[in-house]
Amino acid sequence: MSTKISRILSTVDRGVGQPQTTATHSDNGSELDHWRAPITIKIPFGMTQLSISLLAILLLVSGCVVVRPSPSFPMPTVTQHRDDLVVMKVPSKYYEMNGGGRVSISRMFYRHYRDEFDMLFIVSNVNQVDWFDDELEYHGSSMVVRNSIKGIGKPTFNAGWHFGSKSKLKNILHLTNPYLIMEVALHEIMHTWVGPETMTAIGIPTSQPEGHWGYSSVNGQLGGFNRENLVHWRKIEGKSGYTAGAFQPHRALGSFTPYCSLELYLAGLIPAHQLEDILVAEDVSFFGDSDGPYTDSAGNRIFFPSRLSWITRDQIVERLGTRIPSYEDSQKLFRIAVIAVESVSHPLTEEDIQLISEQISVLTSHIRFRIQESSGSIRPWYTFWDITGGRASLQSGNLQSFRKSK
User: Fold this and answer.
1) Which one of 122, 144, 202, 300 is at 20 to 30 Å from 90 when CA atoms are compared?
2) 50-54, 325-329, 359-363 — which is least confidently predicted?
3) Which stretch of DSSP H or E encloses residue 78?
4) Are the beta carbons of 120 and 113 closer than 8 angstroms?
């Protein structure tokens, strides 16, 4: 293992790879987080109605998307073709953080490379000082551009050609900083199979931003609580309050939360009989006093559902329909291409590029990493292969073998 990877592993417990998020609360009491704030798709003026309609489809399958017009986008420039990644220079700050910029980056990539990739990872170099810039809007996002799978709640559709891919590309991830790759990518990859319609089909009240498990016991990378931690607090105004330990309704607390059974099933990695029943807290509200929302002794918020209900394994399968392809026939190996982007505001040094390469190398490896916390306890630091229980893999590198012939 290189010195730099060792440094990454040794610093994760100190929060170097974790955004220090600040939760705010909307009028209905739902928690929003700067890690998964709404994605903004800025549509260049002059786009055809068909193109706008395709981006409107992405509102349904990616979740948390706002569409607003913006001036036309100049194209990015490829500055380096490496064997493990491509470097592009974009013409403006946060160019890659909207749909129009992402379309342009993807199309530029496919000018040079064959359509052999399941996912594109766009990695920026936004510094920590700018992590809470109001323009930043999120730290990681997912834009699903194609789905042919039935029985996961999502509609089947194909907008990949609009991004330069005729048949292969499924998802475009954007990660705003190299240090966030391991912390955020596993969450965004799961959105390949899970969106707001998945929650609707199953009957889980989705958390804001939409497309997450909310106040349910799904307990995966897309949020939810551990049912074993659910404890009754007390009643207020006729409603029972509950605490479920440290959890977020819209994301896992870091890369040490494995994919849960429902996430593995939707990704086609386990059969239906391995699904677990789900406990759902319906119509959640919050109460508090002058000191703020009520919390337990550990500082976790108390939530007050109108009732608790169960969704059984059989109900999940019945509501979603049969998954096609089944887990026996589903894809297990996914090839990714990495695009490192820089701008005048956020340039890339050679050290930055090496950091991206090494983080991707760790993410795609077949290694089980474990980290010792300051308390002495050991926790996992998941790669994609490890978080799936060794059922699926990511493949990267050897990029120049996929170059189009001139």
Assistant:
1) 144
2) 50-54
3) strand 77-81
4) no
